[in-house]
Design a protein that fits this description.
This protein is of the alpha+beta class. It has one domain. It is built from seven helices and eleven strands. The strands form two sheets. Strands 2, 3, 4, 5, 8, 9, 10 and 11 form an eight-stranded mixed sheet that branches. It is globular and about 55 Å long.
C-alpha cells in the first residue's frame, strides 16, 4: 500500500503541538525566547508500564534509575511549549526558521517512535495533502525517501545518545518524579533562563558526566500515577511512589 503526501502549507502542524527537540535544538530555541517543557515517563525494570514489543526501543532511550527497592527506566523529552501557534510560523503560514527547523519538523508526517505507524487520520493535514497525485512517501509501511530515512534515524539516535545528559539536566533542576509509561506524562515548565544555563553547563561537561550516568543508579526517582490499580501494582513491586510532582509539575493522563 502506497501513502502519498505533499505539504499544502496549511500551518496545522504548527499549531498546538509540543514538538520534541534534541539538546542541540533546544539551546537556540531558548535563545530565541522560546519556551521548553520537560516530559518524563518511566517503566519498571521488570517491564511494567511498557508492552514487550516496545521494550527494547523504550529502554535504549531511557536512563536506568533507582526507584525505591527496584529500578526504573526513565525517558526524558525536551519539547517546545506551543499551546497555540508556533512562534516561528509567519503570517503567510510558512516556517520562519525553515533552514534550521527541528528534526521532528523535517521528518513530518513520520514519527520518531518506530512503533507509531503513519496514519492519515491521526494527522491535522487537509485531505488534499494525501491525494494520489502527491509523491509516494511510504510503501508497504516503509519510508521510500533515503534522505528522510537518514533524518528519522538521526532523530532516533539523538534520542538515545542524549538520555544521560537529559538525566543530569533533570537532576540539577530538581526533577525526580516520572509518570508511569502508558499512564501519562509528568510535565515540567522550568524558567527558560535557568533551563538554558543548565543545558549549556551539562553539554559543556558531557564528556565527564555521561560515563557516570550510563552506569549509575544512584539517584532515586519516584513514580506518579492516578489509577488505583497502577498504584497497587507499584506498591506490590516496592517502587517509590510520589503523591505530588516537584517544581509545580503537572500530570497529563493518557
Amino acid at each position: 500500500m502506497d501513502i502519498h503526501f505533499a505539504c499544502t502549507n496549511c500551518g496545522a502542524c504548527c499549531r498546538g503541538h509540543h514538538i520534541a527537540l534534541t539538546l542541540g535544538e533546544a539551546v537556540p530555541w531558548l535563545r530565541d525566547d522560546g519556551r521548553l517543557m520537560v516530559l518524563v515517563e518511566a517503566f519498571l525494570e521488570n517491564g511494567f508500564g511498557v508492552p514487550e514489543v516496545q521494550r527494547e526501543h523504550a529502554q535504549r532511550r531511557s536512563a536506568r534509575m533507582r526507584c525505591g527497592d527496584t529500578h526504573a527506566y526513565v525517558a526524558i523529552t525536551l519539547a517546545a511549549y506551543n499551546p497555540g501557534v508556533c512562534q516561528f510560523l509567519t503570517e503567510d503560514k510558512r516556517c520562519g526558521i525553515y533552514d534550521r527547523r527541528p528534526l521532528v519538523c523535517r521528518i513530518y508526517p513520520f514519527e520518531i517512535n518506530p512503533h507509531i505507524p503513519l496514519r492519515q487520520e491521526f494527522k491535522d493535514c487537509p485531505s488534499e495533502a494525501w491525494e494520489p497525485t502527491a509523491p509516494v512517501i511510504c510503501r508497504n509501511g516503509r519510508v521510500v525517501n533515503d534522505e528522510l530515512l537518514r533524518l528519522i534515524e538521526r532523530s532516533r539516535q539523538a534520542d538515545r545518545d542524549e538520555i544521560a545528559a537529559k538525566a543530569e539536566i533533570c537532576r540539577r533542576l530538581g526533577i525526580d518524579v516520572a509518570a508511569v509509561k502508558g499512564d501519562g506524562f509528568a510535565t515540567y515548565l522550568p524558567a527558560p533562563d535557568r533551563l538554558l544555563a543548565t543545558i549549556e553547563d551539562v553539554l559543556n561537561e558531557s564528556s565527564a558526566i555521561v560515563p557516570d550516568l550510563q552506569t549509575s543508579s544512584l539517584q532515586n526517582w519516584g513514580l506518579h500515577a492516578t489509577r488505583p490499580e497502577t498504584l497497587d501494582r507499584l506498591a506490590a513491586m516496592k517502587a517509590s511512589v510520589a503523591a505530588t510532582l516537584p517544581m509545580n509539575g503537572t500530570f497529563i493522563g493518557l
